[in-house]
Hints:
Blueprint: H1 3-39, H2 69-86, H3 90-101, H4 104-109, H5 116-147, H6 153-174, H7 180-201, H8 204-208, H9 211-224, E1 246-249, E2 255-259, E3 262-266, H10 269-285, H11 290-300, H12 305-330, H13 337-358, H14 363-386
Antiparallel strand pairs: 1-2, 2-3
Helix pairs in contact: 1-5, 2-3, 2-5, 2-12, 2-13, 3-5, 5-12, 5-13, 6-10, 6-12, 7-11, 7-14, 10-11, 11-12
Amino acid sequence: MQKKTWILIGLLTLVGVAVVLVLAAPCMAASGKVASAIAKTPTGPGPGQINPEAPKGILGIPGAPEPFWLWCILWGIWVGWIFSTVGAFGGIMAGVGHITIFGLADYGKTFKKTSPVLNKLFTDSIRVSNQWLVGLSALISSTNYYRMGRIVLPLGLFLAGGSVLGAYLVPVLTAGKIKLSSYIGYFGLCVFVIAGVLFYETTPRGQKSKKAAREAARAFEAAHMRKPAGGGESSQAPAVSASGVKVTHWSLTRIAFTFFGVEFSFNPIWPVLGGFAIAAIASFLGVGGGFLFVPFLTSIAGLPMYIVAGTSAVAVLVGMIVSIFSYMVIKGVPVDFMMVGVELVGIATGSFIGPYTSKYIPDIWLKRLFVLLALYVGIRYTTKGFLGYSLVPPF
Length: 395
């Protein structure tokens, strides 16, 4: 990796630390909400009760789960890699970790009847913790994709512009009002529906309508996957590929660009409207929105997956900044920075790797990876939320 890249990584890390320190103050203030909710919760060793003698776990709650630091790092690596590779599933996989792997949802659900306020605090804390992870991944991966010439910057910025209002309104309107069981069910249902859309795009019929995307993907794959024997990418290659994204036309009604010689275009109004709708749904679920941005960019905009991940990351990054600010500063949602901070170490590692490995994975397999994960997550959380048990492991 070039020296300039490491310098940029260092600067981004410093910015991230500064942001954490700035938001730590309102987070500490929000801890008063947790203390108040604990005081109103019945004491005892049983479910739905607080045992003052138990060791403190997440959010400083006695008896709450306290995830092992190594699992936090390893899960963070997976979350960062999957998001930076396909431009989606960062927030969803972060949610899988917080909800299932670390057991926060099962613990939070025990307070549904005994302490509804604490139950809803857990819901909001999970949502904003997910967004911290995907936010850092979006920052790192979009920077790397831009250097590679694999971001449609105008499209990403228009999506981001539309997402600002949605990312602000939903936290303000829903914080403290969503039951954990409802959140899990809606979370899974949205993912399950999206899986169907992406699966259709991997079928021969779905592929026929994406002629330009297939042509650009083939050109990209020919350049990166079928090099001459003994060949390789030059260490002196320019930061932005000569065959990368090039904007060729700007107007109020049409923006055109090329990728590996294939032209694409879009009307700016559609990504603005799409960004608003996607950010509203993503903020409600507490995820980055990539699992909606990716189908939008592949199905509606008709782009190849090789430029979708970076473009999605730009839109997700802006939405995450606004949504995290709304949750934590405006609504005072608490976050356990001890857990999240450790997870961010893994996020940084996985997010650096993803953009470099994705160029060696065929376009259609990137979509199939998306579909496979979406089916599992969708089935698990739809049934868990609405039926009370999961049809797939862990049950």
